[in-house]
Amino acid sequence: MEPLLEVRDLHVDYLSDGMPPAQVLRGVSFTVSKNEAVGILGESGCGKSTLALAILRLLPSRSRLKGAIFYKSRELTNLPEREMEKLRGAEVSLIFQDAGSSLHPTLRVGTQIADVAAAHHKDWSARQRREGAEAILKEVGFDQVERIYASYPHQLSGGQQQRIAVAQALISGPSLLIADEPTSSLDTTVQAEILALLKRLRREHSLALVFVSHNPAVLAEMADRILVVYAGQIVEEGSAQQVLNSPLHPFALALLRCVPKDVRHNGPDRLLSAIPGSPPDPAETPAGCPFAPRCAERMDVCGSRMPSETRPEPDRKVRCFKYGG
Amino acid sequence: MVTTEPVIRVQGLRKTYVHERPFSREKFVVRALDGIDLVISAGSSFALVGESGSGKSTLALCMARLEQPGEGRIWFEGQDLFRLSGPELMRVRRHIQLIFQGTAAALNPRFSAEEIIIEPLRIQSVGTRTEQRDRAVHLMEKVGLPPVWLSRRPHQFSGGQRQRLAIARALALEPRLLILDEAFTGLDLSIQAQMVALLRDLQSRENLTYVFISHDLSLMAHVADEIAIFDRGRIVEQGQPSRLFSNPCQPETRALLEAIPGRRSVLGLGQS
Ligand SMILES: Nc1ncnc2c1ncn2[C@@H]1O[C@H](COP(=O)(O)OP(=O)(O)OP(=O)(O)O)[C@@H](O)[C@H]1O
Ligand SMILES: Nc1ncnc2c1ncn2[C@@H]1O[C@H](COP(=O)(O)OP(=O)(O)OP(=O)(O)O)[C@@H](O)[C@H]1O
Ligand code: SF4
Ligand SMILES: [Mg+2]
Ligand SMILES: [Mg+2]
User: Fold this and answer.
1) Which structural domains are found in chain A, ordered by start?
2) Is A61 helix (H, G, I), strand (E, B) or coil?
3) Does A259 contact chain B (CB < 8 Å)?
4) A163: contact with B, CB 8 A cutoff
5) Which of residues 157-186 of B touch A (CB under 8 A)?
6) What is this model's ipTM?
7) B215 alpha carbon to ligand 4 midpoint, in Å?
8) Under CATH, what is the fold of the domain B6-95+175-271?
9) CA–CA distance from B79 to each of A156, B76, B96 (Å)?
């Protein structure tokens, strides 16, 4: 079956005066099928938000993109902006990482949601738009819908703003939702409601998801497949089960070792574990494996050239010399 | 200086927001804080956890004297916060730093990272120009960002990098009380652990007090000495993390604990 989204050898550089270009994505390829949920896991600064923005062509002007992005077989990188606008929101929605700051500061949030509804459901009456917006506000966990509808963003808490962004992304009934940390400022109870809502949309409306999260437990619940990104490359890909329970790549292993232990069984852990060292500056091109300076399993070959992708098991990919590379 | 006085004492704090209802003379009334009493002792780490919209950030703003409560009082090291003015207030402002929720997204877009970090030092006239710059370099390293990025503007950083910039800025003045409102949001687990280690290290050397506001109960369990559970403007339960986790007394606490993702689907790794 043809994938819903296919990203092929995507490179993104950020440009700035008097500095070498920052190569933030270095040849990223993956697919997302209809109704599939793909989770993205990676360290701060590895290029997750850049990837999300690139798919919707929302990168800042001082950037350079190479490669191809297919959505329902249409190549997006050379689509006219007008066509792209039609796609955004209606077919493909994005929840930005800083959801609160993506809201319009001087419009009531209910109106902002109803406006998105208007743009995508042209046949809806004003009343239908309002009711649609109210219904989605209930679904993202608000009980005082009337008050929330009439509020300006600054009158809402951080988590309330984030839920408005979720509502706005969902009201058009997209086929693909790209969610950049959509529940990062929500308490566990409300987060569970939002995750349940997304699961229901997957079941009932075949919604496909690209889900960026720093929380492996959230990905375990939400994702079918997981991509692990390090320094702008996918270093491991596999089913959520495989990647979370038995990661292959030394970086994935190190990152998952940082999950805090359950206090009830182990008591508080004064020293949470971290991966020593820091990722390479995207402005410099590492000669060998980008993880080598921090890798506990590095070998002689690791510093000399970049490992290539291998398939140690069916449906699993990894980029590391331990597995052939 | 060793004080027996708690760093923060909150008594009977109430704050009500009123906002207009379109096409109506009635107004919406939101009881953001509905009678808060709280004592935070010096050198401790205190966590506020609770449902979205329960009033945590409102309390943070009041503790940093950025919001005026309707009723009640707050004492900082024994001084009534809302009676301070002039140089005394300026001094207290130096000792209390708040990383407010969304700070990272709201950093001044025209400032460089360096200007962002040293602005509090400039406002309080602390240090010479060179000392300020050295401090900025030092703090960048501490939060795991390359000092060569000091000339970059906020939009040239990733979300988690901006978050760390906000932490560096809040540490610039060496506050005695640091309030971190969702400051770990958007940081990966490894960086979270590094930030926790950094804050611990500072705490062990100076008598620093932290108030963490976070939705991440599992993280708070490792970080805080005491957790207060917020619900609709009130503290419904308070206690040490191990007690709260093993023996929650209130339904709100139980609900938050049960909703921690991955509680049931056991993550094989990390627990070993
Ligand atoms: N300026 C304001 N005007 C009107 N209502 C407000 C204002 N600021 C906050 N509120 C309301 O007060 C309540 C408490 O908000 P607060 O920001 O303190 O919540 P919070 O516990 O920090 O939530 P979150 O976890 O989502 O950040 C919310 O219902 C919010 O809508
Ligand atoms: N406009 C820009 N100019 C130069 N560099 C940039 C720009 N925007 C981002 N970067 C850099 O690109 C890298 C990737 O940024 P991106 O926002 O994609 O990271 P991320 O994986 O989303 O991280 P986080 O988890 O912290 O949000 C970072 O190192 C960042 O510093
Ligand atoms: S290629 Fe070598 S350095 Fe890189 S992750 Fe694998 S073992 Fe480690
Ligand atoms: Mg990001
Ligand atoms: Mg808040």
Assistant:
1) 5-85+210-323 (3.40.50.300)
2) coil
3) yes
4) yes
5) 157-161, 164, 181-182, 185-186
6) 0.93
7) 19
8) Rossmann fold (3.40.50)
9) 31, 5, 13
